[in-house]
Amino acid sequence: MFDIVKEASGLVSHGVSACAGCGLELIIRNVLGVLGEDTTIVIPPGCSALFCGYGPNAGMRVSGLQGNLENTAAYAAGIKAGYAMQGNHHTTVLGFAGDGATVDIGIQSLSGVMERRDKVMYICYDNEAYMNTGIQGSSSSPVGAWTTTTPGGKPTRRKDLLRIAMAHDIPYCASASLANIPDLRKKVQKAKDTDGPSLLHIHCPCPTGWRYHPSKTIEVAKSAVQSGAWLLYEYCDGNITVNTKFKELKPIEVYFSLQGRFKGVNDEGMAEIQQQVKSQYEALLALAGLE
Question: What integer pLDDT is reported at residue 55 of this predicted model?
Answer without folding.
Answer: 66
